[in-house]
Amino acid sequence: MTYVQNVKNIPHDAYHHLAAIESTLLREYAISQTRQEINTCMEKLIPINFIDLNSAIIQEDLSEEPDIIDLTIIEQVVNATEKRAYRSIKKILEYIVPSYVNEEKLDPEIPVIHLRISGDGRNVGWKVKHIMITVVLLDDSMNLFNKSDYHYTIVLFLGTENYLTLKVVTTALIQELQELSNTGMVINDIFWRFELFFSSDWKFLSICLGFNAANFNYFCLWCEITKNQRGNGKSNWMISKSMSVLSENPTAYPGHKLPPLFNMISFKNHIPDKLHIMLRITDHLWELVLQEIKNKGLFNDITQNIIIKEIKNLKIRFEF
Fold this sequence. Notes:
Radius of gyration: 24 Å
Largest sheet: 8 strands, mixed
Number of helices: 11
Strand content: 15-25%
Low-confidence stretches: 55-63
Order of helices and strands: HHHEHEHEEEHHEEHHEHH
Structural class: alpha+beta
Number of domains: 3
Distance between the termini: 46 Å
Shape: globular
């Protein structure tokens, strides 16, 4: 019943009223006690460690639209602005890998686990922004894209996407990833090797690679193409940068200015998130559609109302 209440987001008050009507349902105090027992058990298995950032977080003016507008969530997040949490990726693996083996998603005969680290920031109301870093097993392809329960949070903190803050909060994570990459890990008497990947939007990727902004002359994270060469379709631009070279000399390639944070992950395994690429392409296509309507002199109140109505049918908030 505790599982159902959490997964189906049944409010405590609603369940309390249901239990008052149906005597066979568990009492609220019994569910609360079970939840506390589960939390205590998980705190021992995968403890949450708190990070001291001191003045490392640099708050910025949030001019973007909030991603979360639920007042209850916003209040909880604002009250927790002093907390920055980290969970050991090794502890998480110790807990989840046996179940992946039992479900035949991992094969002990081929003891290689493919881990993807992802990071992104989102606005919580108009007051704060939180950054989340997660890990997912790429070997579990069925649950990779459609179930967030299989994306395990390893770092969560209030702040903005900047190099200094990320360097502090990922210190323990970087050390564990180095160990997984270099020496692997024994879980239930099975020695596992790891291939690591990193995926996020361009901004988060560039920060973690110690790179300049996208409007600089050298804008590509993987090769040394310049702005003037963007229209050259004859050149075959390949991944020409080396993580080992960049680790020894952070400014070895034009555009790089700081040491890469996740230098145990090769450049070919630093991958931009497809969703953000699709959204950027969609934004440009939508801009072209509106420009075409304007050029034909059809951009009037009638057209705007039709567009707004169609987009609202997609459950998307939109206005001119």
